[in-house]
Amino acid sequence: MKGYIDQTADFVRRQLANAEAGHDWWHILRVWNNVKLILADEPADALVCELAALLHDIADSKFHDGDETIGPRIAGEFLRGIGVDESRVKHVQDIILHMSYRASLGGEMFHSRELGVVQDADRLDAIGAIGIARAFHYGGFKNRELYNPAIPPIIHQDKASYKNSTAPTLNHFYEKLLLLKDKMNTGTARALAASRHAFMEQYLEQFYAEWEGKPAR
Ligand code: ADP
Ligand code: NI
After folding, report:
1. 152-170 as b/e, with b when 16 or more CB fall inside 10 Å?
2. Cα 210 from Cα 217, distance rounded (Å)
3. Could you tell me where the DSSP H helices lie in 83-186?
4. Which band of pLDDT confidence, cut at 50, 70 and 90, is reported for residue 174?
5. What is the pLDDT at residue 108?
6. Residue 216 has pLDDT above 70, yes or no
């Protein structure tokens, strides 16, 4: 009999078989690995963290008409079905509902050490080389411009303005990606974020040089 984590990983791998590349099984696997790395120096309920990492994108509201309850509902039904205790099921559901960047702009109403770990793990996958790939993938999916010097980035103060933005992908670096290193909850994630952040800054410098037709550095 497989344990809860392996059963959940099998379920998620199947569910996300046709997911788009920004939120596919590979994203889940990277986040799960980040969680394990953070747990090595962070005291937290490892089962809750790993289950939440595996299930956090099981049904993203962006792809379900903005319904933010569908992910926690599917996760809860699955975990109860395999026999996970009710308090952990509830905790995983709270984490999924409250960990997104959008939710944090809406005024986070739930926090726990475990949410901090999983949120950091997910945020690490939004920055650095992978973060750049995911941003342009998302922009392509939405048919956004790569960059438009006439459209400056804006710092979104609320959830609706962040969600409804149709700005070029480069703006997303200033509106979210470059802000993430200072939002990490754990020391391990802060350290990993620093080098990923530096890489994005270097990338942007090169991008603008090429955009303006300046010689490569
Ligand atoms: P969250 O759930 O934390 O709000 P998302 O699911 O919106 O994060 O983001 C998933 C991935 O898509 C991330 O790598 C994120 O940076 C990227 N992404 C989200 N919105 C945009 C955007 N407007 N432009 C480019 N990339 C985006
Ligand atoms: Ni995610």
Report:
1. ebeebeebeebeebebbbb
2. 9
3. 86-98, 101-105, 113-124, 128-141, 159-164, 169-175
4. very high
5. 57
6. no
d(CA 197, CA 177) in angstroms, rounded, equals 8
What is the 3 CA–ligand 1 centroid distance (Å)? 32
* CA–CA gap between residue 127 and residue 132 (Å, rounded): 7
Report how far apart, in Å, the C-alpha atoms of 203 and of each of 18, 114, 125, 127, 200 are.
Answer: 30, 32, 16, 12, 5
Is the distance from the beta carbon of residue 102 to the nearest atom of ligand 1 less than 6 Å? yes
Residue among 94, 143, 132 at smallest CA distance from 114: 94
Q: How confident is the model over 17-51, as pLDDT tens digits?
A: 988 888 999 999 999 999 999 999 999 999 999 99
d(C-alpha 150, C-alpha 108), whole Å? 33
CB 73 within 8 A of CB 30: no
Token pair 């993938």 in the structure block, residue? 137
In ligand 1, which atom is closest to the CA atom of 167?
23
Q: What is the average pLDDT score of the chain?
A: 92
How much is the pLDDT for 53?
98
d(C-alpha 49, C-alpha 55), whole Å: 10
Residues 6+ apart with CB under 8 A from 183: 104, 123
Q: How far is the CA of 138 from the centre of ligand 1 (A)?
A: 7
